[in-house]
Description:
Blueprint: E1 5-9, H1 14-25, E2 29-34, H2 37-45, E3 52-55, H3 61-73, E4 77-82, H4 97-122, E5 129-133, H5 146-166, E6 172-178, H6 184-191, H7 207-219, E7 224-227, H8 229-240, H9 242-267
Parallel strand pairs: 1-2, 1-4, 2-3, 4-5, 5-6, 6-7
Amino acid sequence: MAGRTAIITGGAGAIALALAKHLEARGYTPVLVDFDEARLAAAAAALNGPAQTLRADLTDHTDLERVATLIEATTDLALLVNTAGIIRPGTVTELPYRDLEQHVAVNLLAPMRLSQAAARAMVPRRQGCILSVVSVAALVALPGSAAYSASKFGLRGFQIALAQELATAGIKVRGVFPGAVDTPMLRYEATHGGSVLNFLNKDVLTAEQVAQACLRAIDGTKLEVFVPYADGLSGRLAAAFPGLVGRLLPYLEKQGDKGLQRFLASRGLTPS
Length: 272
């Protein structure tokens, strides 16, 4: 089998690691990119074969360009997976500008730049896949998460346009839109005033469920894959009628708070 490299940002995260294990079993060579060197090493050690790693802070222009250069120079690049993401809960009036800037840098500008680099590497060979883990927050903007929602709305728009541009070149562009996933980021939200609407569903997703959705996206023909599927339906309905969410918000927040309390109790977490 010819070599196939998969470059994964946010490579030390739970979703990235779960996906990397599956990709490795399929014959890909994972390259994990993350800013946390210790967690990056631990993620690489959790894989069966030798995994390459690259420490990079995607908010730093020099680091971002190093990753872009690596992508363009990888002659057997088969897959780019953008999983890196951040969220800082807080209202627009509360958040410092630096937090607004970081949401856009990590969640939007980095996947845009790296997808551009991947497209440049893949188009001459007329094969490859560019996959981004987006969020249902790209469909429904939530109070207390305006900056996060804005970055994800932007990423969705970029993905749709990129898919159209690359359609005749044989390059797949795919987006996975998960609801709440039990990761350190969600636990941070849960304990630091994040939106209770994350917890409307009885159960939050696991990283493995999102990884499986990524595999379906890679294998399939759909531009967008929603997990759970019901969230995609309700999210697209809410996106079509944005005023509806505001009218339902008091009821939704009441139900979401019940889910949040269940989540905190089941994980032994305490709000800070």
